[in-house]
Amino acid sequence: MSAEELLPGGWVAEVARVGDTVRRTPPANAGYVAELLRHLERVGCRVAPAYLGVDEQGRQVLGYLDGRVPWRDREDPAYFSDGALAGVARLVRALHDACAGTPLAGDAETVCHRDLSPKNTVYRDAGQGPLPVAFLDWDLAGPGRRVEDVAFVCWHWAELGPGADPHELARRCRLVRDAYGPLPGADELLDVMLTQVDGTWRGIAEGAERDVPGMRRLRAAGAVEAIRGWHAWLRAHHGALTTLLTP
Ligand SMILES: Nc1ncnc2c1ncn2[C@@H]1O[C@H](COP(=O)(O)OP(=O)(O)O)[C@@H](O)[C@H]1O
Ligand SMILES: [Mg+2]
């Protein structure tokens, strides 16, 4: 067997590379994720690593995706360019279209990834700057509404908090919305974002209190205070943002 190399950039799972594969701590919903990744491969929706089964240690085995994951905060502005952000929105659209109406979506509109962020996105540079090619970390995927992932992208690829510019956030949200295409519930984008940002800091704080290791690490890195600050900023600019985002 080839040597194992631990991959940096994760907060929750332990991830090792072994040759052309990646071995991860299995997610709680391992069976669902396996079905989802198999479905995406079967229908030719190349937005995720290949699912390759379970190894002798019970770890999830995925195909290794070449490229770069910008897991350090804002490590290079090129990963946050308008072109790259539009590419993210198109990948999300492809995911949602590939899952809408399938048993994986159940009664919901489609399947949502629910953890879309630069740290979970593989980029490749074919000469025009890094562009997104796939998403990692499908542990939280499940049935949901399209607007949920779109809103999640809008705040994870944004700069929020003190000093942020509401006009720039609104411009980036519009760019995501335009690149995604027709979006049911688009008028709710801002409120969905607010609910998600609020739920995120509370979830980390509660998880840390319950001693969940990943959540403790996030809290120790200042995530609760930072995200709580983003929520306060979004609320403070809610009126202006609503106007800026109204079609
Ligand atoms: N299939 C893959 N191909 C390439 N790199 C990967 C792959 N899966 C994970 N990684 C790397 O490992 C890091 C952590 O993996 P991730 O699945 O996001 O775990 P966590 O749940 O800990 O965030 C990613 O940021 C990425 O750099
Ligand atoms: Mg991750």
From TrEMBL:
**InterPro entries named in the record:** Aminoglycoside_PTrfase, Kinase-like_dom_sf
Tell me yes or no: is Transferase among this UniProt entry's keywords. Answer: yes
Identify the keywords attached in UniProt to this record, alphabetized. Transferase
UniProt GO MF annotations: transferase activity
- Please report the stretch or stretches of sequence annotated as the Aminoglycoside phosphotransferase domain: 90-170
Q: What is this protein called?
A: Phosphotransferase family enzyme
